[in-house]
Design a protein that fits this description.
single chain; 50 residues; mainly alpha
Amino acid sequence: MRTRTWPTPPPGARPHELVLLFYGRIALDSLKLDGDRRHFDRLIAWEPDE
C-alpha cells in the first residue's frame, strides 16, 4: 500500500508566509517544502466559484 506524504513547511516557515503564498504574493518555489507539493498546487489553482 502506497501512502501519500503531505507537504510540510520547513520548521522556520511562518504562517504568514503560507497566507502570502495562497494570495499569490510569493511563489511556491520560494518556500522549501518536504513531500508532495501537488496539494499546494491544487489549492493555489482552486477557483471557489467552480
